[in-house]
């Protein structure tokens, strides 16, 4: 669903005409009639979207609160969809009701009596809320193109641009557009006339500290399985759904559980796993997909993606104001398209399994500080020869005594192709230090901080915004059971001693999903890498020569010669199946140049 609107801060009535103009700019296709609502200084426009019913989820009882919701939640008492339940709960519990609202959602709640507007997103939500604030009004919407339609100035935030070039972002709320902010997942933004906007986290998940004492693996696996079944059930209940199946552990788990639930009353009416295939390519995962199909008895729809269409994505960027997708992400559009051709408007993913369940050594510093040296030593390995002991001691020192990594690479990244002169005056060091200090203050243990991995979350925001727009534009609602609140809570409550096992990732998930996975997938190590898809697409279009004459080179941000040399090195490494000499100078970092240059050239945004 899409919604947007205007909150006047100068006492004038909100304009439904403006709200309707904003909504018309949405990339998400409307699934039904547009709903316009005015309440004093607020005007809202909303339209139903894929997978969320035939009517906009908006509730406004007489003389009461107004609520509008993009997203879904579990059933419960109340009427009028999710928005109706929010209105009923808000009267009793206020903001605290959001902490108990399951599902994936972004919402706005307005109190006409106080002219107070609250915008919020569920924890780790993939949905969006963006705002633009002046002294006279606050504009808000689920897509940046809606704000553009309201006439906001389109200027780039140069500090955010510099951080996006390195993927070392320091803020959850800033965007590439100067003056446009996102409401971060798990946060509320409160706005009222005469008061400065106030943004803060609301989720109690931030208070969950992973325990130090180990839990039996079967117990942890059983708790995770219960949470996963509930999450998959609620994301798929009584509806035909597609599942993006790669053949990896995470998406195969979702496919296996959904296939089991389909046989139960209240489960999905139909499950259609959809897999991309790449015959003859090193990243083809057909053998694992075939194994999942045989094990679950659920037929898999296989699709072969088209090559990267540069003209199509240039126009898409101009239309949406989002960064263009990397070529390996653009491949997944074929999955959304296939889902719609099958008559399916809900697409369930395995996104989030890596975030919450991989299992790291991040609990080791906590064990060291607590004096729990025995459990720590046992997790370094089993060898007792002098050489093995020396190796285990070195591993313990490196991971238990090392300072917490800052940013995505340990320290603020500086890339050789970015001209230092263009960064002067942006205070990137100060921003980086402030973000690091804020992250440290938010958490009570080393392990807790690493489980949330905020530096990685910030780096992923542009990519995930692009992915969501691709899927909603294709007419499907993209859902993620691994980011369900119940799954996150179980993951955060599982001790690091249980979550981590030397030589094996995701031991708790492998145990929890053992019966729904073929053995070849349950024991699978590693992942497919799609680097060559990126290489082929960029090389076909001219390599780093794409940047010649573009905004980044013309405005002095990028040294084209250095970028070309780095690209040549990274391509050679990718074709040999290895990392470049400096992993931070690889294909992903270089794609940032191409993607941002295309965004600047096509979006109408100016320096």
Automatic annotation (TrEMBL):
A Gene Ontology molecular function term of the record: asparagine synthase (glutamine-hydrolyzing) activity
EC number: 6.3.5.4
Keyword Endoplasmic reticulum assigned: no
Coiled coil: none
Domain Asparagine synthetase: 223-600
GO biological process: asparagine biosynthetic process
Highest rank taxon of the organism: Bacteria
Gene3D superfamilies: Glutamine Phosphoribosylpyrophosphate, subunit 1, domain 1, HUPs
Protein's name according to its UniProt entry: asparagine synthase (glutamine-hydrolyzing)
Domain Glutamine amidotransferase type-2: 92-148
Native species: Pseudofrankia inefficax (strain DSM 45817 / CECT 9037 / DDB 130130 / EuI1c)
Catalyzed reaction equations: L-aspartate + L-glutamine + ATP + H2O = L-asparagine + L-glutamate + AMP + diphosphate + H(+)
Entry keyword set: Amino-acid biosynthesis, Asparagine biosynthesis
Keyword Amino-acid biosynthesis: yes
Pfam families: Asn_synthase, GATase_7
Record pathway: Amino-acid biosynthesis; L-asparagine biosynthesis; L-asparagine from L-aspartate (L-Gln route): step 1/1
